[in-house]
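#help-structures
NK: newbie question, is this the right format to request a structure? protein is Phage integrase family protein
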Amino acid sequence: MRTNSFKSTGSTRYLALRGRKFYYKRKVPVELKDIDERGPVIRVALKTDELYIARQQRDILEEADNQYWASLMVNGESKIAQHRYSAAQARAKAMGFSYKPYYEIMEEPLRLMTDRVKIAQKEKENVQALDSVLGMVKVPDVTLSDVEKTYFENIAPPIIKAKSPAQKNHWTKERKHTFNLLREEIGNKAIGDITREDALKFYKFIMNKVAPHNGEPTHSASFGRKQLARARGFYADYFKYIGDAERTNPFDGLTFKDTDRKSRPPFPLEWVKEKILVKGALEGMNDEARAILMVAIDTGARLGEIANLPPERIRLDAKVPHIEIAPMDEKGKRREIKTRSSIRQVPLIGLALAALQKHPNGFPRYHDKETHLSNALNKYFKQNELFPSEKHSIYSFRHLFEDRMKEAGVDHELRRILMGHSLKRPEYGSGGSLEWRLQELSKIAIPFDPSII
């Protein structure tokens, strides 16, 4: 847009007198009223009663305003629209309403619609107030790509603050994938234009992956649920971010039941004793991976929980040697854990105690690299035929740990605590002393040759 687009004609344009002094008087363009805070009318005292001086000063101010408005119009159309929309929300709130687009207002109860109309009649001379209360200001045309940028730059940081670098990378990668799937199916639409029909189109797109009418599924129901939950979350989080938290979400209610959930089978205990905990079976593994495996067998802890244990949480010098699994919030050592119930203290017995006595400072090789660790362990077990079946994985040791406790008669609630599962009831007390936990856990100790550690 050329700078003279805002000019009027006449040698005395934008000049007015107050007494004998001139001042610059100019209306802010209608489309910029919500972004130029000087509006709706700009007034600048020129402090002169000489017309030719006033014209010179007017020309300078006029050109400055022209350039400023042109830059807004050319480079910031989405920003202008966002300001206009935010201003409409604020005006509606000031008049006692939440801002809603007109088509949502039409679905409100008659009483609420009537209240809006009454206010509109009072404000009929104020176009901006009228548009605000009747929902006539369009949601800014912010595309999914723009939303993605806003999401990762402004919405996500507080959510992922406590995560480690690897956790942040994994979290971000998964959500970028969902944004890509959304664009692939419904196009790079403006988020305000996404309808229920678009959401259903995305739902059917995902359904063809998890429950196709013909052929085998390529993805699990869990995958489908996550994609829909993230799409719903993106929409809700974005509109909450711009001050429209009550906006109807087109993705609401769309999900998949996890009918295909199949738990990994546990290792048979005899298989572990005869095939894995024997001399030579694990010799080809590096020391840290082998030690982590031993800790997993006798604590039931997740690989990531073990691999990221800092030295101060490996309590070998305590009265009851144990590990402390908890989130970390120190600068440079931040790490989230799966759930609140995952915070726990696990006594060390047998294999776990022996392995950590050899690695009291933890496992730096696999710090924040649990995916790499899991892949390495699974690959080793497959290559050396250490899995009882194709359905087994390293995670099967965690299931075996739970079965061992169950068969040994370990207290039910203690089993849930040691596994990091929620108790499904209000929590009272600490869950039992470490001495008692050790006594219970000792029931499942496996005899082993120390040379295999």
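mod (FA): yep, format's fine, and the tokens are attached above. Residues 15-134 form one domain.
NK: thank you!
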